[in-house]
Design goal:
By secondary structure, this protein is an all-alpha fold. It contains 21 helices and no strands.
Length: 415
């Protein structure tokens, strides 16, 4: 495959692949068939584009070829589910291909989120299936988000797909009065998808594009459900964290920790949008974890005006969050904040408590935990232990910007 064709295919898959899979799944009501059809289209692109050159609209081409492949797979199937398949369409002409470019669009993505979060599926399975099928995250990445094994997550995904087929779950948005039973899973899906994108400061990993999508989708949900304070809270949370993106890399491409970022380059427009969302949520009189997490990040954002971070307030907010929604992630973040508010030894003691109640092996293989250990040991002047934690973190395959940051810290300890 020529270099230009390969680059164009990679770009098309990165930018439109998730939406194309979503549109195929919507059309044929079968997640496995959508994935297989898209994989076939990508393989055919390698063969065809090398010979004939890339098409004018690569995304439309991939969708059209995937759609034809899905029709073929439907005809060959020996067992048909309740889905009714459309009559196969004729070979597309250039005008049809151009029109197809408008089919795999955000409405399909949002609709499939609600489908995958169907109450017939177990809560974690709903979220994992959406992250895999719609967001394109690898099974390994999804497993890390849950601190579980890749094999266990793969089994969970397989069971969820089987359940969708057996239950003949309809691929359409439920009526608004039925959204409530799915909303928590939808919000958690968007939260995890965004977190996976945000953990890579340079935007180099497979989840990078989900940052912009999460920003857009949470805004859409806030418009659709303006009386749901947690929807507003998540939209505010994403905007507050995304506002810091311009300050997350130094000139050498290394990640800059939040406490060291230049607040002057934070995006004031996004922070203003978040503040407005939080004010709207506060008037509704129902608080929840997303509003609490947004409040934590709003406390960080206040450094733009005050010049300091109110770490004591951050710790207090994490205390409330842990009562509402306990998690290892919140506990580790609280330990880091406690290290800033009280001192590194207090933070290390809090980290030790996390290790005492969580799966030690899984926790040791979680990059944020090792990075937190390294930072707190370093602040405490315990260089040998900081170096050990940094080496452990570097073995966990951090993204390029994070790797460079950790390697620099390790190098500084050895001088």
């Amino acid at each position: 495959m020529s270099g230009d064709a390969e680059r164009i295919l990679d770009e098309a898959v990165r930018r439109a692949g998730d939406r194309i899979r979503a549109a195929l799944a919507m059309r044929f009501r079968d997640l496995d068939r959508a994935e297989e059809a898209f994989a076939f289209a990508s393989l055919r692109a390698v063969e065809t584009w090398s010979r004939d050159g890339p098409p004018r609209d690569p995304a439309a081409w991939l969708y059209a070829v995937g759609r034809r492949r899905a029709f073929d797979l439907g005809r060959r199937a020996t067992v048909r589910q309740a889905a009714v398949f459309d009559v196969p369409e004729p070979e597309p002409d250039p005008e049809t291909l151009l029109m197809a470019a408008f089919e795999p669009i955000p409405d399909e993505r949002l609709r499939l989120i609600f489908v995958c979060c169907h109450p017939a599926l177990a809560p974690e399975a709903r979220i994992a299936l959406t992250l895999r099928t719609l967001c394109g995250l690898s099974v390994a990445r999804i497993a890390r988000a849950w601190l579980t094994s890749e094999s266990a997550m793969l089994q969970r995904l397989t069971r969820a797909k089987r359940k969708i087929r057996q239950a003949a779950i309809r691929f359409e948005i439920p009526e608004p009065d039925s959204w409530g039973e799915r909303l928590e899973a939808v919000l958690t899906t968007l939260e995890i998808a965004y977190a996976q994108a945000y953990e890579d400061a340079a935007g180099a990993a497979d989840a990078a594009d989900m940052a912009g999508e999460a920003l857009r989708l949470t805004g859409l949900l806030a418009d659709l459900l303006p009386q749901e304070p947690e929807v507003l809270g998540l939209a505010a949370l994403v905007r507050l964290t995304e506002a810091r993106r311009p300050a997350r890399l130094d000139d050498g491409g290394a990640m800059i920790p939040l406490s060291e970022q230049d607040v002057g380059v934070w995006d004031r427009r996004l922070i203003g949008e978040a503040a407005a969302l939080m004010r709207r949520a506060a008037t509704l009189g129902r608080s929840g974890p997303y509003q609490l997490m947004a409040a934590i990040h709003a406390t960080h954002a206040a450094r733009m005006e005050t010049g300091v971070t109110a770490w004591g307030d951050v710790v207090a907010l994490y205390d409330v969050l842990l009562m509402v929604r306990p998690s290892a992630v919140a506990q580790v973040n609280r330990a880091v904040a406690l290290g800033e508010a009280v001192g590194p030894e207090a933070g290390l003691a809090a980290l030790a408590e996390v290790a005492g109640i969580a799966d030690a092996e899984r926790l040791a293989g979680w990059l944020p935990y090792q990075a937190a250990r390294a930072g707190l040991y370093g602040k405490a002047g315990r260089d040998a232990e900081a170096a050990e934690a940094l080496r452990a973190a570097l073995k966990l395959h951090p993204a390029p910007a994070e790797r460079l940051f950790l390697a620099r810290r390790l190098g500084a300890l050895s001088h």
